[in-house]
Amino acid sequence: MTERPRPSDLTEDQARDELARLADLLGRANAAYFRDDAPVMADAEFDALKARNADIESRFPHLVREDSPSAQVGAAPSEAFGKIRHARRMLSLSNAFSAQDVAEFVQRIRRYLGLSEDAPLAFTVEPKIDGLSLSLRYEGGRLLHAATRGDGEVGEDVTANARTVGDIPTGLEGAPQVLEVRGEVYMSHADFAALNDRQAAAGAKTFANPRNAAAGSLRQLDARITRARPLRFFAYGWGELSEPLATTQFDALDRLRALGFSVNPRTKRCKDASEILDLHAETEAARADLGYDIDGMVYKVDDLALQDRLGFRSTTPRWAIAHKFSAETAWTRLEAIDIQVGRTGALSPVARLVPVTVGGVVVSNATLHNEDYIAGRDSKGAPIRDGRDIRIGDRVEVYRAGDVIPKIRDVDLSARPADAEPYSFPETCPECGSPALREEGDSVRRCTGGMICPAQAVERLKHFVSRAAFDIEGLGAKQVEAFWRDGWITKPSEIFTLKDRYGPGCPRQVKNREGWGEKSAENLFAAIDARRTIPLARVIFALGIRHVGESTAALLAGHYGTWTAFRDTMLAATTEGGGEWDALLSIDGVGPVLAASLVTAFQAEIDEIDALTKHLSIEDAETQATDSPVAGKTLVFTGTLERMTRAEAKARAEALGAKVAGSVSAKTDLLIAGPGAGSKAKKAADLGVQVIDEDAWLSLIGAG
Ligand SMILES: NC(=O)c1ccc[n+]([C@@H]2O[C@H](COP(=O)([O-])OP(=O)(O)OC[C@H]3O[C@@H](n4cnc5c(N)ncnc54)[C@H](O)[C@@H]3O)[C@@H](O)[C@H]2O)c1
Ligand SMILES: [Zn+2]
Predict the structure, then answer these.
(1) Among 82, 224, 410, 549, which residue carries the largest CB count within 10 Å?
(2) Where are the bilayer-spanning segments (predicted)?
């Protein structure tokens, strides 16, 4: 998202436009979230936009729109359901995000009620269940109807669905004549996981989190589908009543419990802000072990007579507030550490976690980086997390930032099981048993099995067919893994002999495999054939050599131009040194680590590399301008350039078809030396390389 101006910097016209934009954006997000159970943005983003809207409205009160998002609860009911008008409105809650917000909430209430600092003011504190709210209307002890919140005034009739929820009694003993019970429908983590497994197995859509699953399951037009979904219900409030339930929030919940409703067992009465905050912290710590999602704590003035006096604002009660937990982190338990072996043999530790919702997504795996990270050290041996190590069984803090893979940030030593032992990182590959070694200066331990290691072999293949490499239509990671498992494709070269071995006329055929048919098999062979002609850079990248990413592959391709030139140099160079090695190092962007990786990979794998390229027609790298005086020449810049930056000079030279190297070697054609040139100028002189100054360079390229 682009940076938007701060609300305090907006002109009136800009504010009007921005409020219109936010009304539209938030309106659509609300409908997607509440009506379609398919959010289009993260909750944190939604909350931030909503706060921005409120901020602008407070600066320009006369611009507040009729359809302002601040004045809305939820979204209008879907047309697919019958409608039910609530006897008393179903509202939202205002939010607190910090201890200070909570203190201000308490202060506001005291001021509103005219209570002195030391007058008692108790609160009932309840977990905020992350599901969807439901209103149940009982008359004469019978369940009459059930409605979702909708827009707060009118909800959707989900009576038949509600009757299928085990926690919702259909008949009550000794209840008031009219009783509207309000609460949250939710799904446990275990039921959510099982539901998603079943959905995936049936090829149906899976849910992003338990809240969406609960909402999507309750709001079914066919209540038989709801019946098959394991929904639960916690009661936390009420609407219309023919007689009061009690005189306090806490006792009223007790009464509901006595009538047969589930009331959250962590509900407590607190006498002041400090007790409230303690309970908030305690519950946040226990969050991972609850087995269902809560996203904060709700504080409600306990005395119902005071609740009445406080009343409501347009969309929220004055007597309650939701104190949210921090969204992007959560505490949970580390159940196991698995080691994954990657394409280059790297052993990566993966944390298996008791599932926890972090920023709206259920997380059950997180990366642990490497063995130092687990031990509480960085790559230089300095302590991280104050040196606290991570052990199986520990309570750990998980965080997500943006879309990146979840990570483990911290560990709670006070919750460490007595028998937890320091994690000992494997010294052999869990996949092939080869020794896993750690090179000097490398934080990663690597399997030395090479292609005999099944994990490396299959990861190599997946890389080979990936988007930026061979990108063969119909042969993605999944398919290539299946072929690999059956031994039909064990290395990249075999992709190009697949048709000979498993094509038409062969005893076993691709078209007879599960998930394949005549047409798809034909398409696959055609797609493979289409890739026999392929650009040089893609081939270099596809080889999957460590440190050779897309841009390095393009750089090498641009430097060598042809496959033959590249292959022959890699084979001729040795890490012991010598002319070929120096030439490799003289390429700008190639350092000794990358060079060594290339040279060793070629020496170890030349048989497979040649077997592969025999099937290919590799296109030379884009030939650059040839009619300039420096086309095809290798240049080196040194010293200070006065008329342009080094980057600019390099770009100009490359645009004219020159290669720019980082160091002088026998292959250098020209050294451009500014003031302060040192050892390079001397080396050039020793090697008899032509040396010119910046002015001569500029006139050479016609830019003088
Ligand atoms: N991602 C999106 O696009 C998107 C869009 C709209 C809303 N949202 C999210 O939805 C939330 C706002 O929705 P909201 O207006 O329902 O407010 P809310 O969920 O913050 O609070 C109100 C709701 O809390 C629930 N609740 C749970 N436990 C409760 C308890 N013990 N007592 C009282 N109420 C309890 C009730 O259902 C009530 O309606 C925000 O978290 C927002 O991020 C996200
Ligand atoms: Zn291995």
Answers:
(1) 410
(2) none
pLDDT-wise least confident of 30-39, 80-89, 279-288 = 30-39
Question: Half-sphere exposure (CA, 13 Å, Cβ side) for 211?
Answer: 25
The answer to the question of residue 627 being in a domain is no
Which residues form ligand 1's pocket by a CB distance below 6 Å?
29-30, 33, 39-43, 46-47, 73, 92-93, 126, 128-129, 133, 149, 184, 236-237, 298, 322
Q: Are residues 317 and 182 in the same domain?
A: yes
Q: Residue 78 domain-assigned?
A: no
- Encoding tokens for residue 350? 């993966």
- What's the pLDDT score for residue 476? 93
Strand partners, 133: 184
The interface predicted TM-score (ipTM) is 0.94
128 is catalytic: yes
CA 76 / ligand 1 centre spacing (Å): 15
Ligand 1: which of 22, 46, 135 to mutate, most ligand atoms within 8 Å of CB?
46
The rounded distance, in Å, linking the Cα atoms of 534 and 425 is 41
308 with 168, same domain? Answer: yes
Q: Whose CA is nearest to atom 22 of ligand 1?
A: 92
Question: CA distances (Å), 522 to each of 42, 311, 466, 501, 504, in order?
Answer: 42, 71, 20, 14, 9
- In DSSP terms, 303 is beta-bridged to 248
Instruction: Choose the final residue of a domain: 72, 87, 112.
Output: 72
Q: What is the CA radius of gyration of the chain?
A: 34
Relative orientation angle of helices 189-201 and 210-218, to the nearest 10 degrees:
70
Identify whether 346 is part of a domain.
yes
Please give the distance, rounded to the nearest whole angstrom, from the Cα atom of residue 486 to the centre of ligand 2: 19
CA dist., res. 33 & res. 38, Å (int): 5
Assigned token pair, 516 = 């394949």
Query: Is 385 a domain residue?
Result: yes
Residue 299 is which amino acid?
Y
Residue with tokens 């259920």: 362
Q: What percent of the chain is modeled with pLDDT above 70?
A: 96
Contact 619, 533 (CB under 8 A): yes
Q: Which helix (H) or strand (E) holds 593?
A: helix 592-613
Angle between helices 12-30 and 43-59 (to 10 degrees): 150
Higher-scoring residue by pLDDT: 630, 619: 619
Are residues 495 and 603 both part of a single domain? no
Distance CA 193, CA 201 (A): 12
CATH value at residue 590: 1.10.150.20
Residue 27's alpha-carbon distances to 6, 48, 111, 360, in angstroms, are 21, 14, 34, 20
pLDDT of residue 2: 42
Q: Which domain holds residue 65?
A: 7-72
Contact, 635 vs 672, CB < 8 A? Answer: yes
Going by C-alpha positions, the residue among 10, 111, 103, 100 that lies closest to residue 63 is 10
Strand partners, 324: 296
How far is CA 684 from each of CA 285, 649, 672, 676, 679, rounded to the nearest angstrom? 66, 19, 10, 15, 9
Paired residues of 156 in beta bridges: 83
* Count of the separate structural domains present in the chain: 6
Annotation: binding site for Zn(2+)? 429, 432, 453
